[in-house]
Amino acid sequence: MKTPFISIVSPVYKAEKTLVELILQVEKEIVKITDSYEIILVNDHSPDDSWQVIKNLCEKSEKIIGIKLSKNFGQHYAITAGLDSCSGEWVYVMDCDLQDRPDQMIKLYHKAMEGYDVVQGRRAGRKDSFFKRTFSKFFYKILAYLSGYSQDSTIANYGIYNKKVIKSIVSMRESIRFFPTMVAWVGYKKTSIEIEHSERLEGKSSYTFKKLFNLALDIVLAY
Asked: Which of 23, 72, 116, 142 is the one with CA 20 to 30 A from 59?
């Protein structure tokens, strides 16, 4: 049976100390599915040496592709840049801090092979801060009230997506981007499964209260 070509898209910000480990773990897991893959790392104008690390990784492997944004646009815009450039039959979207565990990729893939176009990960024992978990639950309740659409606060970006889903998402050129709601908006046959979630390997989240509040306001108004 022919194995698919798979893309892995990861937005990068303040990740110079995690990128090498990210690639090691992703490559270890993806070869359990296919030898045909690309890993797209999108540097969201990170203030550390993330771009230099990405360039070094690209020099060592033709399967790794680096994209450098001209300024800090934000996580979901970085995801869009990666999706614009990917060519996989299936596409994984995952964060770069290893909270989205690469060893869960195969679980997502096997579920997709049951006939789903989208399989998202529900974070079991979510390891984010109490503030971030609480803010997330509150935000999704407000969004559900205003939009009539309910979303599980344990689901973020991590998942596997068929290329037709990605094609529909990249055709949406709205200036306000929020990947999870865009996935919901385009439809298709989707499900979610419980996956393990890890502590950040290094550093802390770059989402301050102000950034989270502004993101939430943008999403509510746009949706």
From this structure: 72
Tokens of 143: 């969004």
Three-state SS for 63? coil
Specify the pTM: 0.83
> Quick one: 2 exposed, middle or buried, by C-beta within 10 A (0-12, 13-18, 19+)?
exposed
What is the CB-side half-sphere exposure of residue 154 using CA atoms within 13 A? 13
For the stretch 9-65, pLDDT in tens is 999 999 999 999 999 999 999 999 999 999 999 999 999 999 999 999 999 999 999
Annotate 150-170 with DSSP letters as a single string.
---TTEEEEEEEEHHHHHHHH
Burial 133-147 (b: 16+ CB within 10 A, else e): eebbeebbeebeeee
